[in-house]
Amino acid sequence: PPLHTTQFANSTKRTQSFQMMCGRAMRLATAAVAACLVGARSEASGGLPVPRVVGYNASWMATVRNMVHTGTLPPTLTPALDSLRRTADAALALPGAGTCPEKGPWTVTQNPMVPPSGDKHDFSYVGTYDWPCNAACPSQFTAAHCAQWWRRPSWDKNSSKPYPDWKACDNATGLPWIGHDGFGQPDGQHDTGCSVRMADSVSTLAIAYYFTQNESYAATAASILETWFVAPTTAMNPNLQFAGYEPGANNGSASGIIATSFRWSSKVTDAARLLQGSPSWSSESQQVFAVWNARYLDWLLSSAMGHTENRATNNHFTWMSVQMLALALDSGNGTAATAIAARCTASSEPGALQHQIQPSGLMPLEAHRDAGATYSTMNVLALFTLATVTSSVPDAKPLWRYSAADGSGEIRAALDFLTSFGTNKSKVWPYTQEGVASWEDYPWTNLALPLRIASVVYNDPTYEAAIAKLPWKEGQAQQFLTEDVSLLLWPQLAHEDGAPPQVGGAMRADAN
């Protein structure tokens, strides 16, 4: 069907202009996909190409792959490659886990719950933080946590209207369900669980295939993508219309889009790009996949739910921008990519960087939630991923050193702010992090990957050095420092011989 963008009567003129610009480009998406595929094949004909990924340092990946194939991989990187092989070997079995117990390749059509639409091809799940309106605070949470947060609507800690006074509740049915931020529940989570299994598995296998050229990795990764996106009998419909629905209240929530924007980010589209050239991943499957991405992007841009999520003010906006950029770049929609990237620093956008990050680096919309440290570290990862992906948009404003006139919006400041707590046991986090009794239990190790990326883009080895100072459990620090796959995706500042690694100019903040 033709791709289009719907106008909303209550939208601002700026938002309407953005939608119209993207909509015009979306109508050319199928032709652009074909052009991209031709370009990818010609690029790959020259031997060991630089991969067309957007979420990693592509030039470094090509360097590592060349070292692997010429037998010159330095001893410092061998443990990381060995660890990647072990993880990929385990992924070949496609094991289920958690709320997705079945063996892969996975599909939304296996969901035991029928979506509100009645179409098993629709991705659907009950809101992760939603509970029956008459539910008591679960016993796994502390009494203090329950007393402070459970009886407040959603994440509004300052509300003076405790639930159930603010909304009618049918105690016989538990309807409507209501959100309790931070209180996750497992019911109705099949599609989110299998979505995570799909994204993590295909990413691991595709990365392993790129470096090793082990065709078994490619074949399994291709079967995952074909089952979830390509095969008519199992493919997911390209929308999240029924994501995060609240029984008795609605059939879908805009915030439910986080299920793919966060969990898939750019790694699913990057996985397909890493498979290009493998006989297991045909050009026909790649084209169907890219058209699926174009249609999903169109839904994110044109639907009422997508419109609402695009006006989010916290990590939801950041992750939404990451995924939309990845989809636009994968489907050859440069016009949409440029418009999406521009929104990240537009003062009129509620979720723009300058509205999320204060000059000090504090992100108040994350820090003031019940798990403020967790959400803050999550958003820093999102911001660094966004800056990485934006580097692949030719006309985009570089985000690595972006700062508004008042000093707000600096992603480096956000990382520095959190690192000051994550590497200093005596510095107390002054915001909420429910259920944490000591510094060692804070989620500061989530900063490890942003710190590794920062050491490269800011040409500052103190960021890599800070990783060891985070509150790791026994043995985990050494594992990340020597075996993590990020060593193969991002360079270190110097090799053993002191020579700097090859780093793409767009990935260096001092080049911006």
Cα separation of the termini: 40 Å
Strand composition percent: under 5%
Number of helices: 21
The average pLDDT score comes to 86
Biggest β-sheet: strands ordered side by side in the sheet: 1-4
Number of strands: 4
Q: SS-based structural class?
A: mainly alpha
What share of residues is helical?
Answer: 40-55%
Q: Could you spell the SSE succession in H and E letters?
A: HHHHEEHEHHEHHHHHHHHHHHHHH
Q: For the CA atoms, what is the radius of gyration?
A: 22 Å
Low-confidence stretches: 1-15, 25-47, 494-506
Major sheet description: 2 strands, parallel
Coarse shape: globular
How are the elements arranged and paired?
Blueprint: H1 13-26, H2 29-44, H3 58-70, H4 78-91, E1 124-126, E2 130-131, H5 143-150, E3 178-179, H6 190-212, H7 215-230, E4 242-245, H8 258-261, H9 267-275, H10 283-302, H11 304-310, H12 315-330, H13 334-343, H14 353-356, H15 364-367, H16 372-390, H17 411-422, H18 448-457, H19 461-467, H20 476-483, H21 486-489
Parallel strand pairs: 1-4
Antiparallel strand pairs: 2-3
Helix pairs in contact: 1-10, 1-13, 2-10, 4-6, 6-7, 6-9, 7-10, 10-11, 10-12, 12-13, 12-16, 16-17, 18-19
